[in-house]
Amino acid sequence: MTDPRAFISFDADHDADQKVLFAGQAKLSKTPFNIQDWSSKAALPEAEWERQIEAKIHQCNMLIVLVGNSMGSASGVVKEIGFARRGNVPVFGVYVNGAKAGCTLPGGLQSDCVIAWEWDTIAKAISQMMGEGKNKK
Fold first, then answer.
1. Alpha-carbon distances, residue 5 vs 41, 47, 48, 62, 105 (angstroms)
2. Does the first or last residue of the chain, that is N or C, have fewer Cβ atoms within 10 Å of its Cβ?
3. Using CA atoms, how far apart are residues 53 and 97, in angstroms rounded to an integer?
4. What are the residues whose beta carbons fall under 8 Å from the beta carbon of 136, sequence distance 6 or more?
5. Residue of 102, 104, 51 lying closest to 80 (CA atoms)
6. What is the pTM of this model?
7. Tell me: the pLDDT tens digits for 100-123?
8. Domains defined along the chain, listed by start
């Protein structure tokens, strides 16, 4: 099987730099997955954005939420988690930008599904996701 495809969800207002760092490090890590940068490049009407992003998430094996300290205001992240759940796409989170256990999580993401930004731990989570949801064989 080719490397799993991951959609990266993040708070564009507060953690865009963390998304760039995460994607860059992922390319250099031994972690076997492909990140698709399918962020909307232009402002779209809400319904069009929702349609496009949901379709992109459904083409992926998992959704990885980059959990920063301002997740309480990230309504787009909550919608992306909802799209993933509707499509049976497994979801897990990675703490970024100094966030840690106890920070506010976006709706739909459980605290036991959020891990530290450590590539060995992320690799284990990816392997686990490949046996869950739509990835079950």
1. 20, 25, 23, 7, 23
2. C
3. 24
4. none
5. 51
6. 0.93
7. 998 999 999 999 999 999 999 999
8. 5-135 (3.40.50.9200)
Give the H or E element holding residue 64. strand 62-67
SS3 2: coil
Alpha-helix runs per DSSP H in the chain: 16-28, 46-58, 75-86, 119-129
Assess contact for 68 and 11: CB atoms under 8 A.
yes
For the segment 45-67, what is each residue's pLDDT rounded down to a tens digit?
Answer: 889 999 999 999 999 999 999 99
Phi, psi of 79 (to 5 degrees): -65, -40
d(CA 12, CA 19): 9
Euclidean distance between CA atoms 61 and 4, whole angstroms: 6
